[in-house]
Write a structure and sequence with these properties.
By secondary structure, the protein is of the alpha/beta class. Helix content is 36%, strand content 22%. Strands 2-3-1-4-5-6 form a 6-stranded mixed sheet, sandwiched between helices. Strands 7-8-9 form a 3-stranded mixed sheet. Helix 6 packs antiparallel against helix 8. The chain starts with a strand and ends in a 9-residue tail after the last helix.
């Protein structure tokens, strides 16, 4: 495997900059869930792309932000672990947004890391050429980036260039994962995330941030998969909103998740969702670990 390169690329940025959209686009497969809610991504999720001469291990990380709760602190820590482990960092920014305190917060952390930082300027399809050139010139003065790549993750625009640029900063060496692997997170994690994605897409206000999803049981009988999920919220009022009038909301979520899980498993699926209140779980270290959200936990 002469001249073969492999390494870890941490995809970091503010919440909702397009990290998960970019990773899924690069992999041509849905590895990370997507929604327009901040902190959709909670774990460090490796998306693995292997071609003839390179294995790219993209780490999709939680959005780096000023935390309000213990969960936020843990999510930041997860992102910082990915930065420390990476060979190169891809900092994705939304070109339509001005540089603000949130970007300053991310930048200070990246300066400490001492790794090459490739600036990924996302959503370029939303600006005309003149405005885009001004924004690129502006960003180029903020830090001495290893490279700056304009792109549109949603439109799959300029992604080949993204790969070419990242390859420059990866070390020569054997693959880190088997070539057929697409993610380092197993099926149970992926199924729970699909349920959480549907909750994020269909609910508003405080609900998305307060939800954790656990798989209670999974069995196959006569070619059909039976699944039972537990949805955790941190207040009684949220349980009522999530279930909805006459159970309408929870039914809508269940049917949407069931449809996508059926496509993923390529088998008929029967699914149940139960909602439980765990008061203030986002501030309890033990619950955060129990729900699999702390990358350094023993679980």
């Amino acid at each position: 495997m002469e001249n073969f390169k492999s390494g870890v690329i941490a995809i970091v940025g503010r919440p909702n900059a397009g990290k998960s959209t970019l990773m899924n686009a690069l992999l041509h497969e849905k590895v990370a869930i997507m929604s327009d809610k901040p902190n959709t991504t909670r774990n460090n999720i490796a998306g693995i792309l292997t071609n003839d001469d390179t294995q790219y291990v993209f780490m999709d990380t939680p959005g780096i932000h000023k935390p309000q709760q213990e969960l936020g602190r843990v999510l930041n820590k997860n992102a910082y672990i990915a930065i420390e482990d990476a060979d190169v960092i891809g900092w994705i920014v939304d070109v339509t947004q001005a540089f603000g305190p949130g970007d300053e917060f991310v930048l200070n952390r990246l300066k400490e890391a001492g790794k090459p930082v490739v600036l990924l300027v996302n959503k370029v399809d939303r600006l005309n050429k003149e405005k885009l050139l001004k924004r690129l010139a502006y960003w180029s003065k903020i830090y001495d980036f290893a490279d700056i790549v304009p792109l549109s993750a949603l439109k799959h625009d300029n992604l080949e260039t993204v790969l070419e640029v990242f390859r420059k900063y990866l070390p020569e060496g054997l693959p880190l994962y088997p070539s057929e692997m697409k993610s380092d997170h197993g099926l149970v994690f992926q199924l729970c995330e699909l349920v959480r994605e549907k909750i994020l897409q269909k609910t508003h206000e405080e609900i998305p941030h307060s939800v954790a999803v656990l798989l209670e049981s999974m069995e196959e009988k006569n070619g059909k998969v039976y699944l039972s999920f537990l949805v955790i919220v941190d207040r009684d009022s949220q349980k009522g909103i999530l279930i909805g009038k006459g159970g309408d909301m929870i039914r809508e979520i269940r049917l949407a998740a069931q449809k996508e899980i059926k496509e993923k498993l390529k088998k008929p699926v029967n699914m149940e969702l139960y909602v439980r209140v765990e008061k203030n779980w986002r501030n309890k270290e033990s619950k955060i670990k129990e729900f699999g959200l702390d990358e350094l936990s023993e679980n």
